Each structure stands twice: as C-alpha cells, then as structure tokens.
Amino acid sequence: MKLSTVVLASVVLGSVVSCSSPTPTEPAAPPPPNQVNVVDRSYSPSELTVSVGDTVTWVFDDGGMAHDVVADDKSFRSPLLKSGTFSYTFDEPGTFSYHCTPHPDMTGSVTVVP
Q1: Is 41 exposed, middle or buried (0-12, 13-18, 19+ CB in 10 A)?
Q2: 43/41 Cα distance (integer angstroms)
Q3: Exposure b/e, 1-39, CB count within 10 A at least 16 = b
Q4: Given a cut of 80, is residue 7 above it in pLDDT?
Q5: Whole-number pLDDT of residue 33
Q6: For the chain, which terminal residue's Cβ has fewer other Cβ atoms within 10 angstroms, N or C?
Q7: Are 91 and 52 in contact (CB under 8 A)?
Q8: CA distance 62 to 104
C-alpha cells in the first residue's frame, strides 16, 4: 500500500508541476523616441528622422571615453562628455550631419521633416 501511495503522490505532484503556468516576464521597454546612444565609439542609431520642433537627446555611456556631438554646419555643439546627456531641439527642416571631435570616424545625421 505504501508503494501505491508513493506512485499516486508522484503522479499528483508531477501534474501540479506540469500544470503550473510560467511566470510572465515584463516586455522590454522600447527605447525613448528621438534618442541616440553614444556607446562603443559610435552613435546608435547613426541616422534619425524627426519632425520640426522635436528634441533629440544623445546619451553618453562609453565606458569613460569622452565624446561630443558637433554639427558639421556648426548649428549645435555639445561639450565633451564621458557620461550624461545632451539635447538639441530642431526648429528647421533639413539634414544635419554631425561628428565627434576626438573621433572623426564617428558620424551621424538627423533628418528633420516638416
């Protein structure tokens, strides 16, 4: 009788375990709109399209390496930053190319549409 009790208990416990539903996980939050990450010696995304009046924020987090954001047409310029953010509001349509002064191979652009 003890063996049948153990078998029955195993069956019951097995079905409890197999019937339990998985714990739901939180979906990953989408990146904030109009954000450019400055990481791994690059701008990500390197190309961004926004509307007139939108603000773009660059988030600096490249392991202590300093970068900046300098518009090729000199319309905006951030300080050299190892961490933190820089934001700029685009008030006119056009394509604004930019680069990093210490790392000229780092380039990006913001296209502003009406």
Answers
A1: middle
A2: 7
A3: eeeeeeeeeeeeeeeeeeeeeeeeeeeeeeeeebbbbbe
A4: no
A5: 87
A6: N
A7: yes
A8: 16
What are phi and psi for residue 4, nearest 5 degrees?
A: -70, -30
- pLDDT, one tens digit per residue, over 67-81 is 999 999 999 999 999
Structure tokens at 68: 């900046």
Class of domain 35-113: mainly beta
The torsion of the CA quartet 84, 45, 74, 88, rounded to 10 degrees, works out to: -50
Location of structure tokens 């078998």: 7
- For the chain, the structural domain boundaries read 35-113
Order the strands of the 94-99 sheet from edge to edge.
47-51, 107-113, 94-99, 70-71
- SS3 readout for 24-83: CCCCCCCCCCCEEEEECCEEECCEEEEECCCEEEEEEECCCCCECCEECCCCCECCCECE
